[in-house]
Amino acid sequence: MLSRTARRLETTLLLSRQSLPRPARLSPRHYSAPSKPAHHPAAATATQPSPAYEYPAYFPHASSSSSTEPAPSGSTAHNSDLVNSFLQRQARFTILPAPLPKGDKGEDPIFTDTLTQDKLAVMDACLHNHYNVSRARTLFNGLRESNANILTTEVYNRILAGYFKMGEKEEVKRMMWVHEAWKVYREMCAGREPVRPDTSTYALVLASCHQFNLDGKMPVDSKGAMSYEEVLDNIRTDSAAPSLLEIVAHPALSSDAATIMQELSRISLANRDVNTVNTLARAASIASGAETHEFPEVKSVLKEHKDADGNVTSEVPFNIQNLRDHLAYVAYAKHVMSDDMVARQRHLELNAYEMAADRITLQTEKLASLGMDGRFRDKVLQEYMYTWHEKLSEKLRAEVKMIEKEEFQGKFRNHHTELTPYLSLVAADRLSMITILEVMRLTGTGGIAAGMKTTRAIVSIGKAVENEYKARMCRANNITMPDTSKPDENVFTEFGYSNLYERRLATAKQMGVAENWTAQWSQLTRAQVGGVLLECLMDVAKVVKTAPDRNTGKPLYDNQPAFYHGYEYVRGTKLGVIKVNSAVTERIAKDPLKGTIHPRYLPMLIPPKPWVGTNQGAYLFSRAHLMRFKDSVEQEKYIDSAVAKGNIELVMEGLNMLGRTPWNINKQVFDVVLEVWNTGKRVGKIPPAVYDHPEPTPPADETDLAAQSAHIQQMRAFQQALAGNHSDRCSVNYKIEIARAFANETIYFPHNLDFRGRAYPIPVHLNHIGDDLCRGLLRFAKAKPLGVRGFRWLKIHLANLYGFDKADFDERVEWVHERVDKIKDSAHNPMTGERWWMGADDPWQCLAVCFELTAALESGDPLNFESSLPVHQDGTCNGLQHYAAMGGDSVGAAQVNLAPVDRPSDVYTFVGQKVEKIIERDAALGNEIAQALVGKITRKLVKQTVMTTVYGVTFVGAREQLQKQLKDRGDLSEAVCWDASAYLAKNVLMSIGEAFKGAKEIQNYLNLCARVISKSISPDRFRAKKEEVEARRTQMQKARKGKAAGRGKKEPAAAVAAAEEQQQALEGEGEQKGKMWRGGVRVTASAFKKEQMTSVIWTTALGLPIVQPYRKTIRKQVMTNLQSVFISDPNVASEVNTVKQATAFPPNFVHSLDATHMMLSAIEASNKGLTFAAVHDSYWTHACDIDLLSTIIRDTFINLHSSDMLKRLHDEFLERYRGYLIPVLHLQENTTLNKRLVEAGVKVKMTPEQAKAYSLLGNLIEVVDKVPEAGPQRNMLGEDVVFVEGTVDGAAPRMPSDEEIAKEALKALAKRELVKEEGEGVEGSVEAVEEDVEERRARMEAERNLMNKFVDLTAVLPPLPEKGSFDVRDIRKSLYFFS
């Protein structure tokens, strides 16, 4: 523990940052005002300019004033100009080298191999609690020699801390450990290590001087000892060294800080170093408390309550009696932490597993104290879990000891993987609860009814152990919560952006001091650890099942496994699964879920920690990631680089703004939900406790095979529906329990991004992005008076939720007026009245508005009624809106409400009507499927397909969507639904293409760009190949010289033979390749496919790099305690999946656009003082602020598309992929890619001589007399580079002989039945063979010549689609753009 003086010093220094100008310091919004006057020198720094930062010259300059009040409405146009200027800036791209292909022995800039990752993780585990520092030392020294670039300063600091700790513990080896640490430090200072010392490094070494020098507590040999003078000199000469003020405030100095500062002051005074003496004097003054009034601590959050006698008491607003999730220590939480919400959040996160264990223990003991026999009392989930926990804890202790003994003897369970260091990171009791809670969470997920996939289970458990360890390491030192307030300045200006950047750096520095480095675990390690834990749970977890005796009727009891391992066929693949006993699954759907929800999946009680790094933000201690990427190492590297360069400040600030929105539980809706839940009936999309559809009856005639087959399909559908109902019931149970826990709290939802930039709340069970029930249960914590416009918008919102959203606004308001009685009845008697609200499209949200509108009407003054209900502004098929704006498509714009119209357009109805006309026409021509569909085409039927078409839905996907909709109608047979869905899918997709030609052209452009990019090879690979070829040629020349020298000097025959063998091996590779060439272009193309490592990458308008993660999956077989599993290894570089890259690019690009639009709107709404939340293309605020939000939405959309997003993308591709080349073999005529490029208008300019050599490109070639050396018409043909193995001398592989070609031709002709039976048509067959041989030889010769030829990627990028006449600024006149 730190002393009080040291604690004051560290927190004061880290929070103040007085050495930074005011924009760089943390805003004091949550702290009391400084007592010093404004003219005081310390405060005067606020007027200084911000630190230098590289900004484009076109950045608008804002005033340095920093008013926290929302900008007046008159400033809207000015703010819009600032946003527009920001979006028009020159983009700052994040560009990294392409990964190396699999098998390449070079140092990959992106991927770290799994073996190295495992070494880092084992080293981390061995350092934890100094479990095995000797082993960590061996691994560290090995990595320094083999892969030093992976080692960061944090790793070195962990090593130094471990060495010094071992110096304290081991008296015999003290000198060895301490001198080893000092040696590493000196190497860092001398620049002989890949990293430089930082604040923690210097602090650790200063602490070691105090501890181990001759005057210290544990002196070591003076020879080579570290001195204070040496450390001070290192700090002075290090240009990148942190300030001495920060170093002496570091927690590593602990209670010795005062003594160390005195010694440093003495040395500095002797050296006449006045600056250092003054700095240390100020630090001592702060530590003594002389300046603490200048750096106040965080204020506590309290609520006041009056009792019956009028006495006022203060307590934390936390209904702990009802918080059933992870808060067992009621007395402790109330009395010890009653005045500190940060402490409450800390307690919630860090003690989750202990509280879960104590709670179930307490409940079981209470039941036992009542004298109830365990066989006869009701076995709730907590009782099961208590028994499992006790047994599993003991089992794990024994298992870990056994594994440790085996590994000590050199017996490893799989591929020499060490498990003991990992299993020793977390105590056995906590490992037990982690395993139990994770398995309970996974039950019924992943498409497995009443169970889970084995691979997912073991990896999830292993990852949960990793997260728990990292959460505890995350805050090794108790440093005050950083500032979470929004920035004062407009972030779209140079000054505002600078402030944002410097605030983040200061906060990151503050948070980084408190967090310890931990290594990432590999998937293999997670699987191994999870396999051990899951097997142990399955051994000990039992449940008691009862059934009546058939003869006596008395209950019989049977102990059965709670979990068991088996196999299932899922989509034709045999998968290992963990099945859960029905006694457990039934309880999950019924019992209160106390203790089965981890706080990492819960809302927060305080505003989330601001995002300052890729894994620094959101929860206080639970490690969260800024971006969700499924094992995409490349995306992780790009986001790390973008953060380090300061390219995505606005993205992180946008997430911070979304997380700062406070929420409450809507208690009125919650009461109704609870009432419905307890009835067990299906109401308002809440699934029933007992599935309410009858089981299909078997056919009467067992010999009727068709009927039997139909019954099997019906039973399969029934079982799936039954399992789905159970899963839905469990999901609702989670939501109700969380809502109950936080019913009297103000809560916050930390947000992060998916890889396309879309924002999502991190809590998964209850959040505003969830279903209708989740949204109905939530309301803003802050209320605002409705006003005239807000009262009108609340009525429009009710009509929208009910489904009456295609009329104009006046008609919607009138529609509500006509139903006021029904609305009031719904509010007063939601379950006993007419229940009008249940007929709404979104019943629970509708009920919430009924409560709010009724309260306003009955308040006596509706316009001044304080409303906290979110009101939505939803886009009209937002993807098509973005396509129409990008392409200037006037027709499409009118259909999705971009253009001004009197009444809202409905694209779904429009497409449905077009399809209906086609069906009527076909039905008149006698088409039976069309006749069956006449009169059945509705808006609802086609809505999902139209909506997802813009996001790349395929024909198969569209058919499945339409088939489901047809089945739900219930008036068509199974067989008719299948045929009709295919027929409908074709016509729906065709109608959409006709209606939105502009969108289709853009989709084709994006798809084609992705195809050529994913087939390209980076210039780095060409340079490497050139060097490789030169090295091999040199090697061959040496072999030849050695052979000649051996003969001339009569050297031993063995040496000559070796030289000859080496030469033959090198020369023989070309011959070997000649044999392979009989496969033609396929063999060579296969070689090039291994080089296809280029992902499609682009940058959003806010600077966020988007990396498509689609690569071919590389799976590794891992033997676990349960079964052999195949796990994808993200650390293995594999070539891109070109098909997936192409098909996914259009929807992903549009998603990145709507994400950017939302983030821009969020930042602008925050600047205007609005409460803001969003669900992708649905924006929420208070009813009274809807008009202002509508203006913001339109302005940001116009500004975004005024910057011409397609041209920006095209320009980025030209810059990002400059020098990338495509093998000409991929572009041959008659290939799909060639045809599509020709259709798009792509032309590669060549001279007549070049055109002859590249003739197989067909119509892609444009012959010109001369190709310019520079400019867009420059020579786009890449330099010939030997890429195919075996062509050492640069020549292409040899051509096969005529005889070999003839054999191949005969086989091909035989397949085409051109060669008749023996004796028939011999002459014709011979002629056919001869002709085919000539054709084959000519084509193979042409292919052979193209084998090592390449075309510049930028030469074959398709031209931009022609833009239409629609002016995006007309959106300002559209009432129904978002409504």
Q: How does this model look, in words?
A:
Keywords: DNA-directed RNA polymerase, Nucleotidyltransferase, Transcription, Transferase, Transit peptide. Belongs to the phage and mitochondrial RNA polymerase family. Residues 11-20, 33-52, 62-77 have a biased composition (Low complexity). This protein is mainly alpha-helical. The protein contains 49 helices and 27 strands. A three-stranded antiparallel β-sheet has the order 3-7-6. The protein has a three-stranded mixed β-sheet with strand order 10-12-13. Strand 25 (1244-1246), helix 47 (1248-1253) and strand 26 (1261-1263) form a beta-alpha-beta unit. Helix 11 packs antiparallel against helix 12 and helix 30 crosses helix 31. It is globular. It starts with a helix and ends in a 27-residue tail after the last strand. Residues 1-74, 290-306, 312-339, 369-379, 1065-1083, 1282-1293 and 1314-1324 have low confidence and may be disordered.
Features:
8% strand; mainly alpha; globular; 1379 residues; 49 helices; three-stranded mixed sheet
List the helices and strands and how they pair.
Layout: H1 4-16, H2 41-44, H3 76-87, H4 114-127, H5 133-146, H6 153-169, H7 174-189, H8 199-212, H9 228-237, H10 244-248, H11 257-270, H12 274-287, E1 303-306, E2 312-315, H13 330-336, H14 341-350, H15 352-369, H16 381-408, H17 420-423, H18 428-442, E3 451-453, H19 454-474, H20 494-514, H21 523-540, E4 542-548, E5 555-561, E6 563-570, E7 573-580, H22 582-588, E8 609-613, E9 616-618, E10 627-628, H23 633-645, H24 649-659, E11 663-665, H25 667-679, H26 705-741, E12 751-754, E13 759-761, H27 772-776, E14 778-780, E15 784-785, H28 787-802, H29 809-817, H30 820-828, H31 843-857, E16 866-867, E17 871-874, H32 878-887, H33 890-895, H34 907-924, H35 928-933, H36 939-949, H37 955-969, H38 974-995, H39 997-1014, H40 1019-1048, H41 1053-1076, H42 1081-1089, E18 1097-1099, E19 1105-1107, E20 1115-1119, E21 1124-1128, H43 1138-1167, E22 1173-1175, E23 1178-1181, H44 1186-1202, H45 1205-1216, E24 1221-1223, H46 1232-1240, E25 1244-1246, H47 1248-1253, E26 1261-1263, H48 1298-1311, H49 1322-1346, E27 1350-1352
Keywords: DNA-directed RNA polymerase, Nucleotidyltransferase, Transcription, Transferase, Transit peptide
Region (Disordered): 1-80, 1036-1055
Domain DNA-directed RNA polymerase N-terminal: 343-660
